[in-house]
Amino acid sequence: MTQPIKPRIYEILESSDPNDPWSRIDDWGVSLLVILDVSAFIFETSKDISFKFNIFIFDIEIVSVFFFTALYFLQLWSCTADPHYPHPLWGRLRYAATPLAIIDLLAILPFYLLLLFPHVQLIQSTGLFRLLRLLKLIRYSNSLQTILRVIGSKKDELIMTLFSVFILLIFASSVMFFAEGEAQPEAFPSIPAAMWWGVVTLTTVGYGDVYPTTPIGKLFGAVLAFIGIGLFALPAGIIASGFSAEIQKRKDPERKALSESTAAIWTPKQQQVVSHQVEQSAELMKLCLEIAQEKFGDRIGDQAVIRDFATTLYQEAVRKLDL
């Protein structure tokens, strides 16, 4: 009795099948609960709203934690149905170490830590982890999963770009410290303090609270601002190319399936007839191009005009010959 139920529960919790009503209920229910819980967390920071709806906000938190805890333990219980996690102990530990399972744990852990240790200052600040519940939506969103796949496929390029930015930041902060340290000791007292200026300059934000005043500082600041524009365009280009490759991967199986389904519909005799018609059409188009080139090639230098004329000849021939 347990074996058929366990794979089914695991399938409902882990997959997002639009044709499965239970999977749709799980997807929409968890997504709605996440949105309600995060909204309650945001409204809780407002004293007026928190004072008026304190009980309602607290009830949302209790209900959310209850359901998220139940889902987490259901996932741990049913994960052994997956061939990747077959062992009753080590399989569950391996599943608990996966990124999505860690997110699920961090989403509920602060609540229980606050219950056990309500007066510990460090644990009180873990309430911010409630925002991690937004990441639970990754499990139910193909768009968010696509973003993660793109980042994963381009992680080496992104790490290399981040490392380049880090090196440039250290170099820029060091130069600016030696250039502006004496003129502005309060703004550039040390290299770590100068990194704030480096960050806002490289990211082209430029708050204006810290800026160079010496000639060499202004010159280097201008150069660094231009470098920052180009450097921070690199991750955008890398991610854009990753999205293009991911979309192409998604289209290729669809085209293959369409081709296979079309081939399955046609009989061998029909495929032969279609192939013969395509060959005839190609030969006719080739003949029209040769005629257009022979008649007008010397007088018309523009090949686009000749191709347009050949296309007109082809269409007229198809109409008259009823091909």
Describe the structure.
Helix 1 (2-14) crosses helix 4 and helix 4 packs across helix 6 (99-116). It contains 14 helices and no strands. The mean pLDDT is 77. The termini are far apart. The chain has helices at residues 2-14, 21-44, 47-52, 54-78, 90-96, 99-116, 121-124, 142-153, 155-180, 191-202, 215-231, 233-265, 268-296, 303-321. The radius of gyration is 32 Å and the shape is flat. The protein has three domains: 2-140, Four Helix Bundle (Hemerythrin (Met), subunit A) (Up-down Bundle), CATH 1.20.120; 142-265, Helix Hairpins, CATH 1.10.287; 266-323.
What is this entry, summarized?
With 323 residues, the protein is mostly helical. It has 14 helices and no strands.
Which sequence of SSEs, written as H and E, runs from N to C? HHHHHHHHHHHHHH
Give the class from helix and strand content and strand pairing. Answer: mainly alpha
Summed up, the helix count is: 14
Look at the structure and give the CATH class of the largest domain: Mainly Alpha
**Please, what is the CATH homologous superfamily of the largest domain?**
Voltage-gated potassium channels. Chain C
Radius of gyration over all CA atoms, rounded: 32 Å
Strand elements, count? 0
CATH architecture of the largest domain: Up-down Bundle
Number of domains: 3
If you average the pLDDT, what whole number results? 77
Strand content: under 5%
- Here the CATH topology of the largest domain equals Four Helix Bundle (Hemerythrin (Met), subunit A)
Largest sheet: none
Distance between the termini: 64 Å
Spans of 5+ residues with little confidence (pLDDT < 50)?
Answer: none
Helix content: over 70%
Shape: flat
